[in-house]
Amino acid sequence: MKKTLSFILILMVTAGLSYGQTDFQQDFVAEKQYLRLPVKNGAPSKTVEIKSEGEKLRWFTIELAEGEADWYAYLDISAWKGDTLSLHVNELSKGANVFQPIVQTDEDKNEGVLYEEKLRGQFHFSPKRGWNNDPNGLAFYKGEYHLFFQHNPYGRGWGNMHWGHAVSKDLVHWEEIDIALYPDKYGTMFSGGGVVDSNNTSGLGEIGQAPLILYYTAAEHSWKQGLAYSVDGRNFSKLPEPILDKISDGNRDPKVIWHEPSKRWVMVLYVTEADELHSMYFFTSTNMKHWEYASKYSGGYGNDRYMYECPEFFELPVEGNPSVKKWILTGANGQYAIGTFDGKTFSPEEERLFSQHGRDYYAAQTVSNEPKGRRIEIGWWRTHTDRNEMNFNQSMSIPTQLNLKQTENGLRLFRTPVEELKALRTDSYEASSIKLTPNGDNPLSKQKSETAEIRMTIDPETANNLQINLRGLVLNYQMNDEEIIIDGIRTHVPLVNGKQEFIIYVDRTGVEIFASGGQVFIPVNYNFAPSNTSYDVKVLGGDAVIEKLEFHKLKSIW
Ligand code: FRU
Fold first, then answer.
1. Smallest Cα–Cα separation from 184: which of 122, 228, 120?
2. Which of 40, 284, 316, 519 is 20 to 30 A from 429 in CA distance terms?
3. Which residues are the signal sequence here (predicted)?
């Protein structure tokens, strides 16, 4: 009896769900580059499939606009020009005329909107449309920096993981180009690294053409690791079979590097072990395709996220003592270990260090094959851009250069903005030896700008407190305690030789603060009121001197 009742209930619920809805299917001939997909932020999610002769070519979920669209996503169908494709949508409301007619276009621009959005970070990379999270496959290849990224092309939220792709000649101006990796039968495309196979050890290059190799996790299904390669930095082919089997559900984010002393490739892979132990597994290979387990390094359990996802692994010389080199291993939250590496095993010397002290900087990766030999990092910066009818969401941090320096507490990573960012400066103002007194003049009173790079060297003299008001967001530096408080973030920021030096980047979606000569990095995501473009510096409880002050408005990269 009970069973019959619940059966009837299920029937009623199912019928209720599909009431007024119908699955939609229509054939069309692919003629142009893109299929236009109307999106309404927050609308119920539908599954769209594109098939050819019964074979699924593309599939994804989308908040489909059944009425007026907030924005349009564009699906590249150019590979099937001239073919008859069929478009399937589950549970479209009866009478909704979403795809009547089906619109194809050769332009993927939302005219007058793209890159003009109110919340578009002006010098932080963000996707044209849709969502981004982690940077992936960062590499310099054939004269360009490549930034791949975790991407949902069809919505502002996380999902449908693809690898988006952007290129840059200078690490600052990015051009977003075609999607590099689409989900396949093994799964969606989760994070991973990129590396140039200069000696063609993989055999995937062509004569005189070293391949760019990408490693990714085919996730949410097989959890196997895959390899894709390219000889032009534009078109990517996947090896038909994964190159590493699943170790445990959720293992992910392969990062591959070349280890010169052992003449081997090394892969670091995040693996969740029993009791939710976060571990980084090391594998080695000579041909990039067959991998042997070498060792592992474990971090925290459960909510202790030391060594949790997105490994990054690299070697750096100690500044001023270049014959001494150390290996750095980091997880997604930027916590890191410093140690040695013999080609198989990482032996930590210092553990649980912090490479950032701000908010929502995550899953950072460094650029391989960097032409100037620098170690440059870009992180996912979780900015709050999913507001109003905005058609994109999230961004990357500015690129920063990492260096290893000796401090009184041991070796530490230091971080400075890459010098290429100077190209964005415009309308610069410089001053020196400015005496700050309580109730004195504001040295930045004439500066008005949505974006800024501010550099300031301060001698605290007798002041207790320095306040830098950045468009309404107040950075409070308590000089006695050597502590910064900003928007609920509180962190120790030591004086260096009795002075403090700030480098502050201000964009529409937040600030990135570098202090203590680069030892402290504080990214703060914060949506500024567009109307407030003022800056102010003042002291409390005594006098201070700004020895050097620079204020640069910054141009947009778009
Ligand atoms: C980190 C992460 C990765 C994973 C990816 C999926 O933000 O969870 O571990 O590969 O995002 O988008």
1. 228
2. 519
3. 1-20
262 and 235 housed in the same domain: yes
DSSP letter assigned to residue 315: E
pTM score of the predicted model: 0.95
The catalytic position among 23, 83, 108, 134 is 134
Q: What share of the chain is helix, strand, coil (3-state, %, to 5)?
A: 5, 55, 40
Q: Which pLDDT value is given to residue 9? A: 43
pLDDT at 116 over 60: yes
Q: In terms of Cα–Cα distance, which of 254, 74, 89, 104 is closest to 179?
A: 74
- Ligand 1: residues with CB < 6 A are 133-134, 150, 161, 190-191, 217, 252-253, 309-310, 332, 362-363
What atom in ligand 1 is closest to the CA of residue 192? 10
Full domain range(s) for residue 22: 10-105
Same domain, residue pair 451 and 349: no
CB neighbours (10 Å) of residue 74?
21
**Tens digits of residue pLDDT in 412-425:** 999 999 999 999 99
Looking at the fold, whether 356 and 446 belong to one and the same domain comes out as no
Report the separation in Å between the CA atom of 187 and the middle of ligand 1, taken as the mean of its atom positions: 14
Residues 377 and 273 in one domain: yes
Residue of 108 and 519 predicted with greater confidence: 519
CA atoms of 43 and 37, how far apart (whole Å): 13
Name all contacts of 241-250 with Cβ < 8 Å and 24+ positions apart.
242/186, 242/218, 243/215, 243/288, 243/289, 243/290, 243/291, 244/269, 244/283, 244/291, 246/222, 247/271, 247/281, 248/223, 248/272, 248/273, 249/223, 250/223
Same-domain status, 346 and 398: yes
Both ends of the chain: CA-CA distance in Å?
66
Which class for 27: exposed (0-12), middle (13-18), buried (19 or more C-beta within 10 A)?
Answer: exposed
The CATH number covering residue 428 comes to 2.60.120.560
pLDDT tens track for 499-548? 999 999 999 999 999 999 999 999 999 999 999 999 999 999 999 999 99
CA of 191 relative to ligand 1 center, distance in Å: 6
Pocket test for ligand 1, best of 150, 312, 330 (most atoms within 8 A of CB): 150
Q: Do 452 and 379 belong to one domain?
A: no
Question: Token pair for residue 544?
Answer: 């201070």
Q: Is 134 a catalytic residue?
A: yes
Which CATH number is 34's domain given?
2.60.120
Mutating to test ligand 1, I would choose from 307, 309, 395, 396 the residue with most ligand atoms within 8 A of its C-beta, which is 309
Contact between residue 233 and residue 243 where contact means Cβ atoms under 8 Å apart: no
